[in-house]
Design brief:
It is a single chain. The protein is α+β, with helices and mostly antiparallel strands. The strands form seven sheets. Strands 8-3-2-12-11-1-24 form a seven-stranded antiparallel beta sheet, covered by helices on one side. A six-stranded antiparallel beta sheet has the order 9-10-17-18-22-23. The protein has a three-stranded mixed beta sheet with strand order 19-20-21. A hairpin with a 2-residue loop joins β22 and β23. The longest helix is centred in the middle third of the chain and has 22 residues. It is globular, with a radius of gyration of 23 Å.
Length: about 600
């Protein structure tokens, strides 16, 4: 039901009311010709791994765009698109550059997820390049003398390093949907590394942070300290920095392929750094690197009540489950009558949808190659109908539901112990649409800022394994996200692609931000699909994160203080936050072309291909 209401002064609360005043057809901005749709339907029977069928450019008239966290990385992607490359080609160039200019967030020493939409076939495929635990890892990997190890000691150590998946992801995606030669994709980043890149605001501020230096060892390790703190001082904003070692690494990957990374000198250096870490050694071996494999999976998609289809990564990612849960629950919880349609009612629905979804995600989501994960059940409309009736009182503890009981398949909740594992922000996201109508939504990470602080061959190693539950059992029951050999840890990353009710590409979105990623991405989906906001307007809204028993509200953004006060008056335990770590990059397909948005909390831009 759509309810027309006047706008309020407070931007966030006013936006909530727009969920009631957007016309039903106002969001359906994309259409394609019958001929183009028929071509896509015919191509849908072909497997993605077959020879890439690039649609004639005349079938896609909306243009191309790259939205990412650094202007030089965006330009690397645009350069590849100008040469005729696909979204996958551009994504490899963008991320190779981000590993240089934004090393605090991601790089080839980490991993992540790519959601790829093929315009010709209509397929949505996920390339899972999430880091894996070493084969020798056990559920007790972070236990010592029967006790869980101290988090910060585990976090900044060799024990926390997972087998990196980024380079293998590049190759798997390029084999499936690339067009340009492999070696050409790394040249923009190589040139930047050799000639120098501009140190942007975020990198400089992160390095100068007293908090960073208190908790990480970046300035204590010789190679990292020499690079990031020359002469003992952090890199300054606006300075020019080269990275010859990174350039040489990329040249080897470009000419030799992924084997240059997963075997030989580079692999040996990674394994040695992990196994000889002075703080706490890890179990990674060169065999673990040689045996790494990307998992190619179908996207986890849900169709919302208004006909929009939302696709994201399946487990171990939380994206496909949580984004569809939050949208579905919000639709069921939002006010449905003129009398109930207050700003507080819409705000409450958004917060309660998050609390319900986070509780389920924390309990059930893990690596489905190792444990059963009820991914489809969690977004089943029947379960969402039931789950919406279980919304917690503002002062009540958030607990998981049981989709098995709701769907008549027997109880599921009691299989696992509760898992409140925190995921720390050290991640990047970028969105790309190419001139052929293909799209990439890609979120990549090294986990914490600068990963585990160790630099090898010009790149940072991740500390991703602390995304596992360090405690393997809870209440006498196993935890789904416990460590195991070759297992991937649970992730909050939610690279997302949205299709309109006609099945046409409508939106590409995603964000970094640790476990808050789920809330950040949901804000853009609800903002655009429910509240009628533009890409940039949805990004600019204050972040509200409702995981567990505390609702975090970003109060240094316009509308944040009003939202915090409204929630506090409703009885929620509100934590006022500043300096939220989102990095949302959004592209929306409109009737007249592409509309992009970049998060002002980082250094990114969204630029169209001219």
């Amino acid at each position: 039901m759509k309810i027309a209401r006047p706008l309020l002064a407070a931007p966030f609360l006013a936006a909530l009311l727009l969920s009631a005043c957007a016309a039903p057809d106002g969001k359906q901005d994309v259409s394609v010709s019958d001929a183009a749709q028929s071509a896509a339907d015919a191509a849908a029977t072909e497997a993605l791994e077959a020879e890439v069928e690039v649609a004639d450019e005349t079938e896609w008239t909306k243009g191309a765009m790259v939205a990412a966290a650094n202007p030089e990385a965006v330009e690397a992607g645009l350069e590849i698109l100008r040469e005729g490359g696909t979204a996958v080609d551009a994504a490899i160039a963008v991320h190779a550059a981000l590993g240089l200019v934004e090393p605090e967030s991601s790089g080839i020493g980490g991993g992540g997820f790519m959601v790829y939409y093929d315009h010709a076939s209509g397929d949505v495929t996920v390339f899972d390049g999430r880091e894996r635990a070493p084969a020798a890892a056990t559920p007790e990997y972070f236990m010592q003398d029967g006790e869980v190890m101290d988090f910060f000691s585990s976090w900044q150590s060799g024990r926390s390093v997972g087998v990196p998946g980024a380079v293998a992801l590049y190759k798997s995606a390029h084999d499936a949907a690339g067009k340009l030669d492999w070696e050409d994709l790394f040249q923009p980043a190589i040139t930047l590394a050799e000639d120098g890149f501009v140190v942007e605001r975020k990198l400089a501020a992160t390095l100068a942070s007293d908090r960073l230096q208190q908790y990480v060892r970046l300035d204590d390790l010789p190679d990292s300290a020499a690079y990031f703190y020359p002469d003992g001082t952090p890199l300054a904003e606006g300075s020019i920095k080269t990275n010859p070692a990174y350039a040489e690494t990329l040249k080897r990957i470009a000419t030799e392929g992924p084997s240059a990374f997963y075997s030989g000198e580079i692999a040996e250096s990674i394994a040695y750094a992990v196994s000889h870490d002075p703080s706490l050694p890890g179990a990674m071996t060169v065999e673990d690197l040689a045996n790494y494999e990307v998992a190619v999976r179908p996207a986890l998609c849900g169709v919302e009540p208004d006909g929009y289809k939302v696709c994201s990564a399946p487990p171990p990612s939380s994206g496909g489950g949580t984004q569809n849960m939050i949208l579905g629950l919000y639709d069921r919880l939002k006010p449905t009558s003129e009398e109930e349609a207050t700003e507080e009612g819409f705000l409450k629905a958004f917060v309660d949808a998050q609390r319900l979804s986070y509780a389920d995600r924390d309990h059930y989501v893990a690596d489905a190659d190792f444990v059963p994960v009820p991914a489809a059940e969690l977004i089943d409309p029947i379960y969402l109908d039931v789950r919406a009736t279980e919304a917690f009182a503002p002062d009540e503890h958030a607990t998981p539901g049981d989709p098995g009981i709701a769907l008549g398949r027997g109880p599921m909740r009691q299989m696992w112990g509760e898992d409140p594992t925190e995921h720390h922000p050290g991640t990047t996201h970028f969105s790309i649409i190419d001139p052929y109508g293909n799209a990439v939504s890609m979120t990549m990470t090294v986990e914490a800022a600068f990963g585990n602080s160790v630099m090898v061959h010009g790149f940072m190693l991740n500390n991703q394994l602390t995304d596992f539950s360090r405690e393997p059992t809870k209440g006498g029951k196993p935890v789904a996200n416990a460590v195991a050999g070759n297992k991937r840890p649970r992730s909050s990353m939610s690279p997302t692609v949205v299709f309109d009710p006609d099945g046409d590409l409508f939106m590409v979105t995603g964000s970094p931000g640790g476990n808050s990623i789920v809330a950040y991405v949901a804000k853009t989906l609800v903002g655009v699909l429910e509240w009628g906001k533009s890409a940039q307007e949805s990004i600019d809204l204050p972040n509200i994160i409702a995981r567990g028993d505390v609702v975090g509200v970003e109060v240094d953004r316009e509308g944040g203080p009003e939202a915090a006060e409204a929630l506090r008056e409703m009885g929620y335990n509100v934590e006022e936050r500043q300096g939220e770590n989102s990095g949302l990059h959004v592209i929306i397909v409109r009737e007249d072309g592409l509309e992009g948005g970049a998060d002002p909390r980082r250094d990114g831009v969204a630029l169209a291909l001219e």
